[in-house]
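Hello, quick one for you while I still have it in my head. No rush at all, and the record is pasted right below.
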Amino acid sequence: MSISKSVHSLVSDVRKQGFAIWPGFLTGQRCDVIRNLAVQIANSEYANRYPKSTRVWDLYRHGEEFVELLGDQGLSSALDELLGVNHLLSDYSLNVVQPGQPVDGWHIDYPLNEMPARVSGSVLGLQCVLALDSFNSLNGATQLVPTSHLRMDRPSPDSDLDHAVFDAEPGTLLIMAAATWHRSGFNSSTASRSAVLMSFVERWVRPMSDPPESGPWGRTDALRILLGMQRPPETINGVLI
């Protein structure tokens, strides 16, 4: 499948059902490299250990492979269509769910979760979940309520809802609208479950993370704009200032 055709299908799925699944976003050696790096940093001084999971923030600081993920051509094309050009990175982290993690409450994501009233007509934000381990019902894979992104109400955290499960092999990418009702399931397995989380917002929405200082992660104009280190060119009536 060509990049243009696959992107069109992904964008259509997000708009219709609130999420899309991209099998084989990472394959082979590249997937192995990212996973090995994730294991290393999850056991490093940079890891933040919480009751339910281990997180490592600002992954672009932890290796060139993580910077390259942000510049993936297919992902960038899909984000341009859904969020508009010059969208911003809001959060970029590693999430390691430990065995025994309980079921999460149903929720929506930033920025809609912080808005006093829901709005319609714009995606505003996207959450991308890159599976580094297999995701399945046994280890508490992400659960989603199809078409819930079209609703104007908010989910009750403990509701009993019909849902889909993000069953996926390592290297699969889930692209989810911020307004889609979702939660993590119960990890009843004996192993941890790891994923790279990439959140993006439209260019006018303030990201959850502040722009970083100068570094190798800002080697191109596109990356600096994505990270909020550089503003895109301003225009008046379509003419560059």
Observations:
- Residues 112 and 129 are 18 Å apart (CA to CA).
- The chain is about 20% helix and 20% strand.
